[in-house]
Design a protein that fits this description.
Strand content: 35-45%
CATH class of one domain: Alpha Beta
CATH architecture of one domain: 3-Layer(aba) Sandwich
CATH topology of one domain: Aminopeptidase
Oligomer: single chain
Number of strands: 7
Strand order of the largest sheet: 1-2-3-4-5-7-6
Distance between the termini: 27 Å
CATH superfamily of one domain: Gcn5-related N-acetyltransferase (GNAT)
Radius of gyration: 15 Å
Largest sheet: 7 strands, mixed
Shape: globular
Order of helices and strands: EHHHEEEHEHEE
Length: 161
């Protein structure tokens, strides 16, 4: 049985490893290895993850199955009417089993005061785009960023809540 719960300090090393494995699986054909390595070391730094877990304006939860962390979600709450979905990852070996849907749906219960949920998806991330389309997100814009001297094209998607 899948349990969704808040991230706690002792989870951080496992969360960091899960993020690394899912990033490699998701982006290995999209981004150079050095970019994945750099971004995961900075964005998934244990101190940063712990600060997010302790921030009351961030929903940071994990999906746990038989004591094993198999997925996670991170959403930032804003002062406006739109919350931002920063991360939704399920271990590659556990994908396509409804775990992402459970993480998303349980988090939505905490966003009752918001009108929209926004996510940015890398343009070539077909799995991610398919998931969000299936769950009611619509494309509302595009953006280009330069990360580690690599141009990253993202699609901005929103879901009405």
């Amino acid at each position: 049985m899948i349990i969704i719960r808040k991230v706690v300090k002792k989870d951080i090393p496992t969360v960091k490893q899960l993020l690394l494995e899912t990033w490699i699986d998701t982006y290995r054909l999209i981004l150079p290895e050095y970019v994945i390595s750099k971004l995961t070391s900075v964005w998934h730094d244990p101190k940063r993850l712990e600060a997010e877990a302790n921030n009351e304006n961030i929903i940071f939860q994990v999906a746990v199955d038989n004591g094993e962390i198999i997925g996670l979600i991170t959403i930032t709450k804003s002062d406006g009417d739109t919350a931002d979905l920063l991360r939704l990852y399920v271990h590659p070996d556990r994908q396509r089993r409804g775990i992402g849907k459970i993480l998303l749906e349980q988090s939505l219960a905490e966003l009752r005061q918001y009108k929209k949920l926004r996510v940015e998806v890398e343009e070539d991330n077909e799995k991610g785009k398919g998931f969000y389309n299936k769950h009611g997100f619509k494309e509302v814009g595009k953006k280009v960023e330069n990360l580690e001297n690599v141009e990253i094209k993202t699609i901005i998607m929103e879901k009405e809540l």
